[in-house]
Amino acid sequence: MARLDGLAELRPTLQDHFELSRFWLILRRAAWLHDWGKAAPSFQLMLRGGPTWHHRHEVLSLLWIDWCCHDLEPTEATWVASIVVSHHKEARDIFELYPFGLAEEDDPITDLISEVDIETCKVLWEWQRQQAITAWTPNHARGEVPSPPLPPPWEQAVARVRTEGVERIRFWLTQFRHLVAGLESGNGLLSPRLGFLLRGFMHQADYTSSAHLTQGGRPRLTHGRILKVFSLNQVSLYEHQAAAAQTEGNTILIAPTGSGKTEAALLWASRQRRSSAGMPRLFYTLPYQASMNAMFDRLNGAFSGKVGLVHSRSLAALYQRFMDQKYSVEEAVRQAQWMKALARLHVQPVVIFSPYQMLKIVYRLKGHEAMLADYAQGVFVFDEIHAYEPRRLAMILETVKYLREEWGARFLVMSATLPAPVRNRVKQALGNPNVITAALPLYKAFSRHQVSVLSGDLLETANLERGLRDWHGGKSVLVTCNTVARAQAVYRAILESPLRPPGGEPILLHSRFNARDRLRKEQCILSNLAFGSVGSGLKKARPVMVVSTQVVEVSLDMDVDTIYSDPAPLEALIQRFGRVNRGRRMPLAPVYVFEEPADGQGIYDPALIKKALKVLNCNSQRPLDEAGVQAWLDGIYTGKILADWEASYESTATEFRTAFLKTLIPFVTDPELEEAFDRLFDGVEVLPSALVKEYLELNDRDPIGATQLLVPIRWGQYHFLTRRGRIRPRRGKIPPVVEVYYDPEIGLDFAKDYQGAS
Questions:
Q1: ∠532-537-542 over CA atoms, to 5°?
Q2: Which end of the chain is least crowded, N or C, by CB within 10 Å?
Q3: Once rounded to an integer, what is the mean pLDDT over residues 287-300?
Q4: What would the mean pLDDT of 532-549 be, rounded to a whole number?
Q5: Which string of b and e fits 446-467 if b means at least 16 CB within 10 Å?
Q6: Taking Cα atoms as reference points, which of 71, 86, 190 lies closest to residue 135?
Q7: pLDDT, tens digit, for every residue of 624-669?
Q8: DSSP class per residue in 636-686
């Protein structure tokens, strides 16, 4: 019950906001009753090491619904029964275990009832009678009935259990079945929202109670605390930061890279905290795992122990952070697992994740009700929304709109660049939002780059030598390619070049490294290239050459002297440029873009490449006008490019609304959709053959450390390699093994077969 108290305190306006009469009362009644079936002697014997009990305690708990809900309206009692019987298993599982239409002698409920003895009933009856007067009364001032009520007189209560037990359990199962069927058919008299919230909060309260956890409270994001933590003062705030701090409700924020958008977002969140709806939880979303990890470090440093991290490799990321703090392997494992559990159980006030986590509710993955209840009245910050192609963006923004309209969620969407079609769709999703744009003088002050468009291909020897000469001359250089294969080719060419500085080792970064090697590389980059504020006096330890794919666009808070890039859409290039002269250490830094290959390399639309190069050619050898970038983008997204973008977005949005959002109901998950979700968003992790021996050695003493050896690849790549006979399926403790060359400095190289023994 204490866990429900915590949830109710986090959302004091929830019941009124959603016009859900007696919501907390119904939930309290279900929580009071949900585990009564565990009183069965056979269940208790199983807990003490006895034989397995093959029944469901939550179904047996229905036997006492009439004792505990006789004062409720019939529909309220049905909701109580539905939450009780489904608090562990899905509806289809319950119906399969206790099917309808069986003869009495074959009905498993008959056997279930035989578990209940009079002594057990007497104890439960006495307990309810004693607690009825003293139990918690939600909103008692509004005249709600105390919870629980007095049970019926003993003789009447026990007689009903003895003579009508099977019938009453079957009755409540039938009510539950009718409720689920009504939700599936769209019965307007039933409230899916009520079902989501009841089941979702029931799961949260039950699981946190089992884990002996308490709610983490509201995020402590007061205006003054944010200023103090980030060493800011009110007078020196940028105009967009000060405006964010005073803006309530859904908002779009556009400001240059490096101009304090994160601080502005937290100041905006502090304003939502003071609103009537409050801020039960803050969700900070980013597109890439590296950027999520970096934001976790930043926010956890400010709000220690109050920040959760949720992505497919978050356990390994958390584990490595504890290992870096010199924890023992055992303690690092324990702490990482604990932190992951806190995030999974919706305890921490601040959570960092990708928007794909939100899509789990729409794909009806297990636990989607708890996630959706957690999002109710939540506050969300979306960073770098431009990073998603139109189809995925459509799914994300349709979900945003659904959460805003149906669940009272509030959103801040921010970016340095928002092309017109993206900006318009964001506005639609947010419903006439506030728009905050950085002041023009700030854009002028943040002019940090001079663009040059170079002929030819980055991989040509003469072009590679340009970057090498800069590196040799003492500059830190970023070389960004559009594909992993090209980045690997550039890296190898640099290693073989006579222009490489003595002792200079380039750093290659892309998505096909395992977590251990990628983290090592990121730490090496940041130890030399970490972004420092203007006037901080930050000096680079040594000049570094980083070769990367587009993962660098929003993943690392790094600051280099120049960049040589493959051609890409303008918004992607602007993000890449944002890694250069980030702290405005020099008046203008040169940034270079090659004209070839202009075919998009299977990653980008060639038309966008062509338009971006045209814009940059017209402005080559000039300071990059940060304020004018938005107009450049709007000029690109016209004609056929705009029509194709809109068609792709709208077809996906329409299908997503019809197939997913309009069919979303509580109590029902879909295993097939879970597989579809994994294939669309999560990909698959494989173990390089060269690391099998190390994996097996680690797995026995350091299982989380062993998972750091796995490399993420897309499902399409997985099936391609499978067809070529280069994937060995999972065997026992060993995950799928890929017969592809792997090197800690090169990563997974699809062009080379692994020839060693494993």
A1: 80
A2: N
A3: 85
A4: 65
A5: bbbbbbebbeebbbeeebbbbb
A6: 71
A7: 988 889 899 999 999 999 999 999 999 999 999 999 999 899 998 8
A8: HS-HHHHHHHHHHHHHHHHHHHHHTGGG--TT---HHHHHHHIIIII-EEE
User: Model's pTM, two decimal places?
Assistant: 0.89
Q: What is the pLDDT of residue 705?
A: 87
SS3 at position 4: helix
pLDDT band at 535 (very low <50, low <70, confident <90, very high): very low
Here the tokens at position 267 are 């100041």
What letters, b where the CB count within 10 A reaches 16 and e where it falls short, cover 295-326?
A: bbbebbebbeebbbbbbbbbbbbbbbbbbeee
Number of CB atoms found within 10 A of residue 45's CB: 12
Q: Does residue 141 surpass a pLDDT of 60?
A: no
Residue-range domains of the chain with CATH: 2-210 (no CATH), 223-434 (3.40.50.300), 448-624 (3.40.50.300), 683-753 (no CATH)
- Here the tokens at position 529 are 């290239």
Query: How large is the greatest C-alpha to C-alpha distance in the chain, in angstroms?
Result: 96
β-bridge mates for residue 413, sequence order: 252, 382
Tokens standing for residue 282: 């803050």
Half-sphere exposure of 241 (CA within 13 A, CB side): 21
Q: How far apart are CA 179 and CA 192, in angstroms?
A: 10
**For residue 241, pLDDT beyond 90:** yes
DSSP 339-362: HHHHHHTT-SSEEEE-HHHHHHHH
For 86, how many CA atoms within 13 A lie in the half-sphere containing its CB? 31
Distance from C-alpha of 87 to C-alpha of 84, rounded to nearest angstrom: 6
Return all residues near 663 (Cβ < 8 A) that are at least 6 apart. Answer: none
Q: Distances in Å between the alpha carbon of 453 and those of 317, 321, 572, 595, 647? A: 38, 41, 15, 7, 31
**E strands, 1-42, where?**
none
pLDDT at residue number 63:
94
Burial class, 105, CB count within 10 angstroms (exposed 0-12 / middle 13-18 / buried 19+): exposed
Instruction: Confirm if 173 and 85 have CB atoms less than 8 A apart.
Output: yes
Of residues 101, 151, 107, the one with CA closest to residue 128: 151
- pLDDT (tens digit per residue) in 426-468: 999 999 999 999 999 998 888 899 999 999 999 999 999 999 9
What share of the chain in percent tops pLDDT 90?
51
Angstrom distance (rounded) from CA 346 to CA 340 = 10
Instruction: Extract the tokens encoding 89.
Output: 């298993």
DSSP 597-626: --SGGGTS-HHHHHHHHHHHHHTTTEE--G
Closest by CA position to 566, among listed 488, 475, 483, 465: 483
Query: Which residue from 60, 12, 6, 61 is spatially nearest to 32, judged by alpha carbons?
Result: 61
Q: What is the pLDDT at residue 216?
A: 65
Q: What is the pLDDT of residues 189-237, one digit of tens each?
A: 788 999 999 999 998 888 777 766 666 677 778 899 899 988 899 999 9
The pLDDT of residue 142: 42
Residue identified by tokens 């709000």 is 303
- Helix (H) or strand (E) holding 159, with range, is helix 154-184
Closest among 376, 298, 296, 302 to 339, alpha carbons compared: 296
